[in-house]
Amino acid sequence: MHGAGEESALRTLERSKPPFLLKYRSSKGLILTTVCLALFTDGFLYGVLVPVIPFSLIERSGIPEDEVQYWTSTLLAAFGAATFVGSPICGWIADHTASRRSPLLIGLFVVAGATVMFCFGKSVYILLVSRILQGFSAGIVYTVGLALLVDTVGKKEIGQMMGFALSSANVGVLIAPLLGGIVYANAGYYAVFVMMLGLVLIDILLRLVMIEKKIAAKWEWKEENYDGSDSFPHDDANAHLKKSKNAAPTRQSDLEDSSASEDAERPHLIKRDSRPDNSWHLPPVITLLKSPRLDAAIYGVFVTVSLISSFDSVLPLFVKRNFHWDSTGAGLIFLCIGLPPLSGPLVGWASDRLGRRWIAVAGLLLSSAFFVLLRFVTDDSMEHIVLLCVLLALIGFALTCSMSPLASDLSFVVEELERESPGLFGEAGAYAQAYALFNCAMAAATIVGPVWAGYAYESLGWTTMSWTLAVFSASGAVPVVSRNFLLCKFSAIFLFSSDLAGSGVH
């Protein structure tokens, strides 16, 4: 006989009606679309202000021109720093709330408020607070959005779905500066924010429509299993919701065997054991960081994003000095590195079938070779322009081959740890906190990559800069191969030694 709370929940479920269009609102396609739009919006809102900030600082905030570079860098760095700090907090909260949708909505309302603040704010400190709020919102979107994907799709598809999600973010970052510059030049400052808030409104509507799989599963149980008795499904028996009322297993061994076969197809119903009341475990984030496999994936993500973002600080200046291009050409050159990541779903599909580790390793090693070849781009000639474009495209594709498999591997790390120690993360699980660490790595990389590349280019030259980035890329492959994060220390020492050895070469 179950408790009064469960009987009350059963009676409530009986009296209420399923939400309108439940099947479609909880479908895998709609949830994937919602997550992809969330990541696209996040990338778009980050990138659309890049061409606007330098002008708004002078025209609206009254910043002297010799301080514009400082405040532009500060505003961009504030976004990454807020994401880095906020991601673990958002991950813990998301894993301890009943719904993923609620944190996603909160994040969207935060970014909407921050956008309005940036639109009407003139003081540079108000703009700084706005960027911090936008960065915190990005921590929510990436952390909870990717965890929601893991909740929704099975193991056989997680790589491909992760490719779709990350490609959406790349598209947002890619087209945002172009649209932001065009709209600002032709329609003015406020038109840029009308475009941003319109996208946020669409995102809000889609997130309100979406119903999570684990919420919809309660209604599926009612329709398929309810027989008028006083029983009600426990959370840890959700893996059996597809069974009919006349075919429910009666032995505990039956329950365990049948749940194992369904976990891959219905991850939102994976069984988790509750912790004993007298047990004590380390915080989930600390437990995750103790896993060499997760550390290797996080380091690989950090290297990948650092390499991608390193071009932000050097590529426009390089093409200006070497090819004498204006701002339009400097913006268009990013298409070469921005379009290949659209192959993310294909890379994810391949990693689901061929294995994630070796595709990630191949991507990091190939990008290392292509970075070495950048040293041959030196002259203002058509041949060297074509060579630069081709190498940038190859680097973009190679880094996509590392990003998608590493991102999807995080969910397998969590499952592996729970399988080895049942109840380790409790009923809440730790998917969101795993992707919080992923987001922290990305945020740190968006700061480290541009800073190091900018310093190396100005102080050591284009040739040495390309060598250091090549060695850095290869260092990311070492722990991924061995899945032993201790080797990352040797990789870092190797990188530092190579930098010193090459510091005299230009």
Q: Pick out the low-confidence regions.
A: 1-7, 226-278, 484-501
Shape: globular
Would you tell me the overall average pLDDT? Answer: 75
Number of strands: 0
Oligomeric form: single chain
Distance between the termini: 78 Å
Q: What would you call the structural class? A: mainly alpha
Largest sheet: none
Our count of helices gives: 21
Strand/helix succession: HHHHHHHHHHHHHHHHHHHHH
Beta content: under 5%
Whole-angstrom Rg: 24 Å
Estimate the helix proportion, in percent: over 70%
Explained architecture:
Helices cover 75% and strands 0% of the residues. The N terminus is likely disordered. The longest helix has 39 residues. It starts with a helix and ends with a helix. It has 506 residues and is mainly alpha-helical.
How are the elements arranged and paired?
Layout: H1 4-15, H2 22-25, H3 28-47, H4 53-59, H5 68-95, H6 101-120, H7 124-152, H8 158-187, H9 189-209, H10 213-225, H11 252-262, H12 284-289, H13 292-323, H14 327-332, H15 334-338, H16 344-354, H17 356-373, H18 382-420, H19 431-459, H20 462-482, H21 486-502
Helix pairs in contact: 3-7, 3-8, 3-9, 4-5, 5-7, 5-19, 6-7, 6-9, 7-19, 8-9, 8-16, 8-18, 13-18, 13-19, 13-20, 16-17, 16-18, 17-18, 17-20, 18-19, 19-20, 20-21
